[in-house]
């Protein structure tokens, strides 16, 4: 089959690789219908995530049709149109039973690679380096889905492929970030980042009862989507002092909750940006923490900080700021299985429609071009979607 492979930093190629096969009786093989870029892919492409190997197939956000199942798969069958969360879960370990799905104890085949870095292994994730399981990704014609009964969700007829696609990762990640905020009627929520996850966090905050959602970014076309599609108040951090603007919009108190949907490659301004970027280039740290520090500073006393951006090692983390302000911090990789039925219901009822995030469509053969546009945000590219 054809697949998009990582061959080194900023070296992506579409190559012919072996078709996936059933390895475990709980597996399914899915013919990929649609698969999309994700901001966290850029950390891999830019060489910030260790333990990638030449030839690894990229992609972790996808939907498609089941073509084959193992003998122990009972809940789904060939012919089912399904969406698959990006994290792979067994469904039976203690963490899965607590719905902490991205912490699954049984889906990482090489825990010894993660334990020195994290202390404990996380769940496996498609195409996110061998430290996170080494699973082949979804930018391919076919993909093997372990634990198919837990990880394949049948898509209702009134939900389109493009709507279902983003329920794999962007929508549940954003929804989880809003859920972490424990939103009450009248709350004001500020979201850093208007990429796919940030936009979904903004829409989810409104679904959960927020009175006002504030969207922070620097790209006019993304801020326009936040305003026009979500109803958020857009703020361009290159044109206004974010701290002052948020105080003005919240009556001097600060947002009740702040969501960081940016992560380790944030763009900031001033000396801290120069410091972080220099250390990142020298591989002395992996993270630029501009968005996270700004969110921590802006959040009201006793508020909630929800961190969705992917981070590794960051200097100058203002722990004292969090402690003295009494912030509650919630963070995780996405527990997609926890929210999937709820999200499918929202989409079915017309309360959530993530399909607007598709700005560019490509064949799989043109995936390197799609990633180049996505990375550099040319032509207003929010998400590039590939159809194998």
TrEMBL record:
<dbReference type="Pfam" id="PF08240">
    <property type="entry name" value="ADH_N"/>
</dbReference>
<dbReference type="GO" id="GO:0016491">
    <property type="term" value="F:oxidoreductase activity"/>
</dbReference>
<feature type="domain" description="Alcohol dehydrogenase-like C-terminal">
    <location>
        <begin position="196"/>
        <end position="265"/>
    </location>
</feature>
<protein>
    <submittedName>
        <fullName>Glutathione-dependent formaldehyde dehydrogenase</fullName>
    </submittedName>
</protein>
<comment type="similarity">
    <text>Belongs to the zinc-containing alcohol dehydrogenase family.</text>
</comment>
<keyword id="KW-0479">Metal-binding</keyword>
<dbReference type="InterPro" id="IPR011032">
    <property type="entry name" value="GroES-like_sf"/>
</dbReference>
<dbReference type="InterPro" id="IPR002328">
    <property type="entry name" value="ADH_Zn_CS"/>
</dbReference>
<dbReference type="InterPro" id="IPR036291">
    <property type="entry name" value="NAD(P)-bd_dom_sf"/>
</dbReference>
<dbReference type="Pfam" id="PF00107">
    <property type="entry name" value="ADH_zinc_N"/>
</dbReference>
<dbReference type="GO" id="GO:0008270">
    <property type="term" value="F:zinc ion binding"/>
</dbReference>
<dbReference type="InterPro" id="IPR013149">
    <property type="entry name" value="ADH-like_C"/>
</dbReference>
<dbReference type="InterPro" id="IPR013154">
    <property type="entry name" value="ADH-like_N"/>
</dbReference>
<keyword id="KW-0862">Zinc</keyword>
<feature type="domain" description="Alcohol dehydrogenase-like N-terminal">
    <location>
        <begin position="25"/>
        <end position="148"/>
    </location>
</feature>
<keyword id="KW-0560">Oxidoreductase</keyword>
């Amino acid at each position: 089959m054809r697949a998009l492979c990582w061959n080194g930093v900023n070296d992506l190629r579409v190559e012919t690789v072996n078709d996936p096969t059933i390895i475990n009786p709980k597996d399914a093989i899915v013919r990929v219908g649609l698969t999309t870029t994700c901001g966290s892919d850029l950390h891999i492409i830019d060489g910030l995530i260790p333990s990638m190997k030449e030839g690894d197939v990229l992609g972790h956000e996808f939907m498609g049709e089941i073509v084959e199942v193992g003998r122990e798969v009972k809940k789904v069958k060939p012919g089912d149109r399904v969406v698959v969360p990006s994290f792979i879960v067994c469904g039976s370990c203690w963490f899965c039973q607590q719905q902490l799905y991205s912490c699954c104890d049984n889906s990482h085949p090489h825990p010894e690679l993660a334990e020195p870095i994290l202390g404990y292994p996380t769940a496996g994730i498609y195409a996110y380096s061998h430290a996170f399981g080494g699973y082949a990704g979804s930018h391919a014609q076919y993909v093997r889905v372990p634990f198919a009964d837990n990880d394949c969700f049948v898509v209702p007829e009134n939900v389109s492929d493009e709507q279902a696609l983003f329920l794999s990762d962007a929508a549940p990640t954003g929804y989880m970030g809003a859920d972490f905020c424990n939103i009450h009627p009248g709350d004001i929520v500020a979201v850093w980042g208007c990429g796919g996850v940030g936009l979904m966090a903004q829409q989810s905050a409104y679904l959960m009862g927020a009175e006002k959602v504030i969207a922070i970014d620097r790209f006019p076309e993304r801020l326009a989507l936040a305003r026009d599609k979500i109803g958020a108040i857009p703020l361009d951090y290159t044109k206004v002092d974010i701290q002052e603007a948020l105080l003005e919009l919240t009556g001097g108190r600060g947002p009740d909750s702040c969501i960081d949907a940016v992560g380790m490659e944030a763009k900031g301004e001033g000396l801290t940006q120069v410091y972080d970027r220099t250390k990142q280039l020298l591989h002395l740290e992996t993270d630029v923490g501009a968005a996270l520090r700004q969110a921590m500073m802006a959040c009201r006393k006793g508020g909630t900080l929800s961190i969705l951006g992917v981070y590794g090692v960051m200097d100058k983390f203002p722990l004292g700021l969090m402690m003295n302000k009494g912030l509650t911090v919630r963070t995780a990789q996405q527990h997609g299985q926890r929210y999937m039925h709820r999200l499918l219901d929202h989409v079915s009822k017309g309360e959530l429609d993530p399909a607007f995030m598709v700005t560019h469509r490509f064949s799989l053969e043109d995936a390197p071009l799609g990633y180049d546009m996505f990375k550099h945000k040319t032509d207003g590219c929010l998400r590039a979607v590939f159809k194998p």
